[in-house]
User: Which sequence fits this backbone?
């Protein structure tokens, strides 16, 4: 699923004709970078790709004051069809990505086991800061949100809380994990 394709096509379907800068402002106003996997800077490239695919069409060129000329786009019928398909597919798709942390934790460096408690605490502190920032941002935005939008932004809070809870469990078990790693590494070295 392509979040950026969905966002761009949906923005044109909702708001009508616009140029890339207007699309970027819309994304920034909606703060999509905080609750989606969309990079606001990638919108311009997505516009060009969607136009090349025939899902958007160039309707005119505008120039305001001393600003450079800007190409204004509109969604095509093919774009509306693609949006409907993307919408259904995106709602139905379940995305659960592996965290690279798991691979690194499964392959601990035996020479850095003493650093592990600090590293885990730093990760936990970072996630707690992320949660605090997310909650603060969500609280500021709540007054302008629909019920559905409010549930969407709190989804990120729940995911962060779950990760923090899991990491606290790992942190409690860390002495046993480190001891087991030292035993495993020690027996491996003795065998060789």
Assistant:
């Amino acid at each position: 699923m392509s979040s950026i394709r969905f966002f761009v096509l949906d923005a044109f379907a909702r708001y009508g004709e616009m140029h890339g800068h207007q699309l970027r402002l819309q994304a920034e106003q909606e703060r999509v970078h905080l609750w989606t996997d969309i990079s606001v800077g990638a919108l311009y490239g997505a516009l060009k790709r969607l136009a090349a695919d025939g899902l958007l069409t160039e309707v005119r060129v505008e120039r305001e004051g001393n600003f450079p000329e800007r190409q204004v786009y509109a969604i095509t019928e093919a774009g509306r069809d693609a949006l409907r398909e993307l919408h259904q597919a995106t709602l139905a798709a379940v995305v659960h990505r592996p965290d690279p942390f798991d691979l690194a934790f499964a392959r601990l460096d035996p020479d850095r086991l003493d650093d592990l408690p600090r590293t885990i605490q730093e990760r936990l502190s970072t996630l707690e800061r992320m949660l605090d920032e997310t909650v603060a941002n969500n609280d500021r935005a709540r007054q302008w949100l629909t019920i559905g939008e409010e549930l969407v932004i709190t989804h990120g809070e729940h995911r962060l809380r779950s990760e923090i809870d899991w990491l606290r469990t790992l942190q409690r078990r860390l002495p046993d994990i480190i001891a087991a790693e030292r035993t495993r590494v020690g027996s491996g070295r003795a065998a060789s």
